[in-house]
Amino acid sequence: MPVVSKHSERLRKFKNKGKDTAALRRQRVEVNIELRKAKKDEQILKRRSISFSLMDESLSLGEEKRNEIIQLSLEEIVEAVNGSNTELQLQATQATRRMLSRQKDPPINQILELGIIPRLVEFLTRADNAPLQFEAAWALTNIASGTSDHTKAVVEGGAIPAFISLLSSQHMHISEQSVWALGNIAGDGPLYRDALINCNVIPPLLALVSPVTPVGFLRNITWTLSNLCRNKNPYPPLDAVKKVLPVLVCLMEHEDKDIISDSCWAVSYLTDGSNDRIQIVVDIGILPRLVELMASPELIIMTPALRAIGNVVTGTDEQTQAAIDAGVLAVLPCLLRHAKPTVQKEAAWTLSNIAAGPCQQIQQLITSGLLPPLVELLDKGDFKAQKEAVWAVANFTTGGTVEQVVELVQSGVLKPLLNLLLAKDSKTILVILDTISNLFLAAEKLRETERLCLLVEELGGLEKIEALQTHDNNMVYRAALSIIEKYFSGEENPDLQPGTGQGGLYDFSVEKQDFNF
Amino acid sequence: MELSDANLQTLTEYLKKTLDPDPAIRRPAEKFLESVEGSQNYPLLLLTLLEKSQENVIKVCASVTFKNYIKRNWRIVEDEPNKICESDRIAIKANIVPLMLSSPEQIQKQLSDAISIIGREDFPQKWPDLLTEMVNRFQSGDFHVINGVLRTAHSLFKRYRHEFKSNELWTEIKLVLDAFALPLTNLFKATIELCSTHANDASALKVLFSSLILIAKLFYSLNFQDLPEFFEDNMETWMTNFHSLLTLDNKLLQTDDEEEAGLLELLKSQICDNAALYAQKYDEEFQPYLPRFVTAIWNLLVTTGQEVKYDLLVSNAIQFLASVCERPHYKHLFEDQNTLTSICEKVIVPNMEFRAADEEAFEDNSEEYIRRDLEGSDIDTRRRAACDLVRGLCKFFEGPVTGIFSGYVNSMLQEYAKNPSVNWKHKDAAIYLVTSLASKAQTQKHGITQANELVNLTEFFVNHIQPDLKSASVNEFPVLKADGIKYIMIFRNQVPKEQLLVSIPLLISHLQAESIVVHTYAAHALERLFTMRGTNNTTLITAAEMAPFVEVLLTNLFKALTLPGSSENEYIMKAIMRSFSLLQESIIPYIPSVITQLTQKLLAVSKNPSKPHFNHYMFESICLSIRITCKANPDAVGSFEEALFMVFTEILQNDVQEFIPYVFQVMSLLLEMHKNEIPSSYMALFPHLLQPVLWERTGNIPPLVRLLQAYLERGANTIASAAADKIPGLLGVFQKLIASKANDHQGFYLLNSIIEHMPPESVDQYRKQIFILLFQRLQNSKTTKFIKSFLVFINLYCIKYGALALQEIFDSIQPKMFGMVLEKIIIPEIQKVSGQVEKKICAVGITKILTECPPMMDTEYTKLWTPLLQALIGLFELPEDDTIPDEEHFIDIEDTPGYQTAFSQLAFAGKKEHDPVGQMVNNPRIHLAQSLHKLSTACPGRVPSMLSTSLNAEALQYLQGYLQAASVTLL
């Protein structure tokens, strides 16, 4: 599911400056509505197993006898599955599995309509017939990898307890297939995720993790664990999280990049929530490793690690400080300059939340040399990243001391910031106008208002602000107007208002009353 | 109202009457329609009429009436009755779309507007089938119908371009995309197909291109908030077609009109906007298409003519290139030397040429020309766009671009030299090119502040600008003169001072040029040069350097005001003001003639004041004349009064509202120049100044308060003796001002002056009332601003009348009042007082309360003594408390309150800062120490014991510091 950061309405008056810095932090919240294509760099929710498809489909490869392909019609499949001949059951289940493993357009709906799911689930319990168990598990895995309705059919067929008990199967390939199937079910959403957790999926799953577990198997387990940590509304139960987290910490130390990636994704889900959830992750001491992974050259590792840290700094000042202490500020410059726009954006979002902190944290941000890459990003970044960078600057000017704001201006922020007044996004424009007001407040304290006025004009900002006085968005237009009136309304402008009044002089008189202040 | 023929007939009659030119017939008909519009079926009757009436005027009239009716009534406002009954609403929504689509264009537009008003309220929830209904019409094949749908859709969707992202908005957009995006795409493709099948049918093409324009606009709206999945998947279709439309030309669509943009231009211009939107917001996805668009847009520019009708297209297209060429990852598209040369030669240079339309504006519409050229309201012009492109290219290619243009500049200058009278436009373009190439940053106040170092500005100035200005005739080649003067103006910070000094006499002589632009620019350039700063914060150009030119400068400036078209030229008037301010006492010999000319001007413009800036500078110039002259010769004030009072009287008598506040300020300035008792001429005016009618105008309040303060400073005794009956009126003004949250600080300015200057016995009988009034405000609607002013006032009172008098008057109003004010107001709020003089007044006043008020030592007030001292030390040492309670954020605070009148609209009529305790107390901390010492000698032991029991340690430490500095000890 696509995830974006939402810019909560910031109607706070800047006169309340410093009163509520927590409100500046912008959480990553799922927006119900998304116009964009689903993001390409999200972790996959459900996966179908198509590993043997090539072999299955090409008869010419001269495969072994026992893998010989038997073509069955759908009618034959139904008959065989529902029949009592074990050999035919296996053939039919295998044929089903094979159709579902086809690279293109697997006929999930057609299989579903056959009504054989309960029967396939039943096959899972046939401890005496491992090949049948395996084929059924695979077929069900691939059905569960489809739409929500497909997953639902598998769950309603009673697959959850069956798969959970197969986790402890003697046969590793059956156990592994079950892990996969459970991953698909968990990935459907919070409802089935919690159904699994309530059926106590976690202990047997964690028991599979050991130093001797083959890498491929461990990848599947990690992925399924990540799906068990995923999704909100509601979040996964806290005690489940607490059980999984120590194992994730170990998995993050593995050398396989897929395992690291999926365990980072899991942590990123766990941090994507309220501060008490973030606290659990902070407490387990994983932040230094996450920061280390943020610097990984592997995109699939860096992306979820960055997300996780990005989520942590939406938390309290102390939690943000923990991320800073773990060294996040040293890694960010590189990510702000990353070639991929989505990375730039995510890094800038992270920075914006650090900039929303108290001035001590803002100072660390300055000392760590974050201003030059921020200004660069504002100037040349992708638009999505520029928007986040604007927020970073806005937060900085709200919470920073006058000296810090001066340093920001000296680092050249003004020119790219003013250029972005041409952005085709009303919210960004408004945030910039608010930021400009903040800069003027700082300038007033330094008695440098006039210099700032000149600077803004010189950089072409004045004419842009003037042009915004005709903007169609009311709040934008009013913000622009108020800056012009306050700081640029010229040296003189006689303002006369007519009024009416008759009679003699004013009468000076007053009635006494009791006072109590 | 029933839907009957009779009612239709009646309605027809009334509608007809609303078109009658005679108001006696028209008004009652309008009234009637308004009175029946609440009835059920009224809107349906209108719809019936606009569909079925036999007369076209009635149809149109009914449609306009209907739209206005919808505009006024459709929205359901909370807590107000629903103005349209539900069944009418349903019927309107069911019928309006087909009706709109089947109506002739004139009526279609009205109904389309009505639909979008309804849509704004009801769409999508309460009008779910609107979209389907519209989309279904795309199949009709009838482009009259289709354009109706598109137009309506455009007015419904265009708000997506400016609203903030929200779940509600995005839900709507998603719904629209699901229903609309695919049909729109199919319609787009079909329409383009039709354009090629009808390529030879002019009237069909016109309709089809109108559709394409609307489709392109809809594309912009639907893609504005974010890149929708559908459009990302179909980018190929849209962009390929947009691209080919950009390159399309068809003779049949070309218009003869030179001014008005044709359909082809409008479409291409919108496509440029669409491409710019994608380039800015969806760069990652759009990258594969961008180079093609750059090439197409550039070719478009190369082939587009100079006519005004192409202006919007050309400036949009150039702005697109300007925004792309600044991006690092598109740098390569421009970096080839041939590409750069070609852009410079074919895109930039042609669009910098001075066109016939510019020439026309220069001569016949100078004011507009100056505004565009000087004040930068040229955002959409070709020249401006070309200029932006130069700057954009210079970001990465400053060297090559400068090189290419240097060649052009030289060849254009050579062309000019061959035959100036024919080729002067070449030189104009050369100057413009140099200017845009050289200027990297600019402000009104300082001109160019950052210049391209590769351009030798001084050399160009000496070789090519000065010769034009030195030519014998100031009227020859006016455009080039204006260019040259503008060059001096904007590069004044780059050109060395000696060159500026050489230019000054040239500028002065160009004040005589007949061309309005030329003499205006000359005045403006002089004014700007006179405001340049040199070392030590003085002016760069000194009065001594100007000495040889004073007479000719003043003569030419005033003469320029007599040139046709410049009688109220604000640039000239501002130059006059600035010259006075620079030249100071060297203007004195010319004052008699100057003041005569200024008063004549004042008299003339007061008949019909229309140029606020001109008027303002005129009054500033008058103030300057007065100040400069009277500084050297105080007695001269009389001659100014003689010259000005006649005009002032006329202004006051004719109630010229624009000028009255200025008159008051000039009078304040004149009155303050008097060293002795107030002249009787002023006293005669005094009662008139208290007239309520004057005080009802907010613009009068600050200058009138200022003027009354001047009266009180100079004439308090005269008022007390000769106009005692006017004192209640004066206090009435105070009462009026104090009642207003916006003006209460002005009331305090007045009250402070009364207390400071009026003989005590003259206000004795009113004192209690004054305090009661203030307490009432404090009780009923106190604001931070009020409290700050109140604190300053009571402390000033304490200084003037003594602390005991303050305590007594408070307690006579209500027992224990003094203690309550100390405890609830003074101690907790004193930290909020701002301003040096204000703080000093409070410090001295509180010191008096602490040390000269016996009840503070021996009544129940004693417990407040130490807290008050602590608050006073806080006032000295702690930072100002500038917090304002939440609910006060929304009150307009125009002026910061304080003791002085902050108002100084006329800079040169400004009031000097006044410190009423200046002579009495120099250092308030030392004064506190000395006063405490005095108190402690009067009652030994008391003071140290009060300090040691409850003053906090930090405060005590500060206090010891004061005592040490004053070399006193407490007994």
UniProtKB/TrEMBL annotation, chain A:
The UniProt record lists the keyword Phosphoprotein: no
Gene3D superfamilies reported for this sequence: Importin-alpha, importin-beta-binding domain, Leucine-rich Repeat Variant
GO biological process, alphabetically ordered: protein import into nucleus
Record carries keyword Zinc: no
GO molecular function: nuclear import signal receptor activity
Family: Belongs to the importin alpha family.
Protein name: Importin subunit alpha-5
Automatic annotation (TrEMBL), chain B:
Name used for this protein in its record: Exportin-2
Top-level taxon: Eukaryota
Subcellular location, record wording: Cytoplasm; Nucleus
Pfam families: CAS_CSE1 (PF03378), Cse1 (PF08506), IBN_N (PF03810)
Cellular compartments per GO CC: cytosol; nuclear envelope
Domain Importin N-terminal: 29-102
PANTHER family noted in UniProt: EXPORTIN-2, IMPORTIN-7, 8, 11
Biological process terms in GO annotation: protein export from nucleus; protein import into nucleus
Record flagged with keyword DNA repair: no
Signal peptide: none
PROSITE patterns referenced in this protein's UniProt entry, alphabetically: IMPORTIN_B_NT
InterPro entries to which the protein is assigned, alphabetical: ARM-like, ARM-type_fold, Importin-beta_N, XPO2_C, XPO2_central
Molecular function terms from GO: nuclear export signal receptor activity; small GTPase binding
This protein's UniProt keywords: Cytoplasm, Nucleus, Protein transport, Transport
UniProt family annotation: Belongs to the XPO2/CSE1 family.
Main subcellular location of this protein, as a coarse class: cytoplasm
